[in-house]
Structure to design on (290 residues):
């Protein structure tokens, strides 16, 4: 039996069901078995693992995950794909599909219900690019009991997620992600392995969830608000961004005192600060905005 992702099989499946791609749903399907098997290898699944997939499409990646894991649960938004998946995944009874927008789904509840007795859970996905960041942020901020996420995303976003301070890719997203997980780009992927080919280059990243955040802050919500404020206008100094974006213009003296005490230069730009420095500033500036 041929893989679902075999270019000929994919063509036949799409033709048989009269399926047409919806660009608005980020539908670019994988047709290269080497890439699929490499993605799954990056997740280090065992026969005891559970896997969550987002956007199974016609099941190209689901099949490769199902060959390694004890159980796969895939969330698919497009109803037209459900009868197709029922057919293509028939040889894999331990793979099931939930018809849902992942952003609306109660993933905690699904994990409790579907992965009883399974301790090692990974998310593995070729993500729809129009919602990459909200999906990743949802999975991280909801503090799901998962070991990590291996996913294909736009290369440009991958560069930002794994960026180090002082680089041009480093921004509030890099810090937000790195607060919850260790991020690494594990593979670059050419456009030619998808149908239809996307307009952008792709990469696979692996996010390994941290047991503890790298720093401890008094108020996590303010910590993220401070980071967003610091990157508000990229060319502006930290001082100007904080005054403008946190409405601190009548607190200039107190803000100056914070910089004096912490030894952080307010003329620096947000992208040069480390996560630890943001943590120090967050605890010191937090009380000023209350
Ligand atoms: N996994 C398949 C593959 O690799 O060939 C398809 C990947 S395709 C890039 C993205 C998939 O995500 C599509 O099947 C699309 O319908 C689905 N999708 C888009 N938005 C979604 C959402 N908000 N929730 C769940 N699935 C979504």
């Amino acid at each position: 039996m041929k893989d679902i992702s075999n270019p000929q099989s994919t063509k036949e499946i799409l033709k048989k069901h009269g399926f047409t791609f919806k660009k608005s749903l980020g539908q670019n399907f994988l047709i290269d078995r080497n890439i699929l098997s490499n993605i799954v290898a990056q997740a280090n699944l065992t026969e005891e693992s559970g896997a969550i997939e987002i956007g199974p499409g016609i099941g190209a990646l689901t099949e490769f995950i199902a060959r390694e894991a004890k159980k796969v649960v895939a969330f698919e938004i497009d109803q037209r794909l459900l009868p197709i998946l029922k057919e293509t995944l028939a040889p894999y009874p331990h793979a099931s599909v939930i018809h849902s927008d992942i952003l609306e789904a109660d993933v905690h509840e699904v994990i409790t219900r579907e992965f009883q007795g399974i301790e090692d859970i990974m998310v593995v996905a070729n993500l729809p690019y129009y919602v990459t960041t909200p999906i990743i942020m949802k999975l991280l901020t909801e503090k799901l009991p998962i070991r990590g996420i291996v996913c294909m995303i736009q290369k440009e976003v991958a560069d930002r997620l794994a960026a180090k301070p002082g680089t041009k890719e480093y921004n509030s997203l890099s810090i937000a992600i790195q607060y919850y997980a260790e991020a690494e780009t594990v593979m670059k992927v050419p456009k030619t392995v998808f149908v239809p080919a996307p307009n952008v280059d792709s990469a696979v990243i692996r996010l390994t969830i941290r047991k503890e955040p790298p720093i401890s802050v008094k108020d996590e919500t303010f910590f993220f608000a401070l980071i967003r404020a610091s990157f508000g206008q990229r060319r502006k100094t930290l001082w100007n961004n904080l005054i403008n974006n946190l409405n601190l213009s009548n607190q200039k003296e107190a803000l100056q005192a914070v910089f004096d005490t912490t030894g952080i230069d307010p003329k620096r730009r947000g992208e040069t600060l480390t996560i630890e420095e943001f943590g120090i500033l967050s605890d010191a500036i937090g009380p000023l905005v209350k």
About this structure: The chain has a mean pLDDT of 96. Residues 17 and 84 are 7 Å apart (CA to CA). The beta strands are 29-30, 50-54, 71-76, 95-99, 121-126, 148-154, 181-189, 194-195, 202-209.
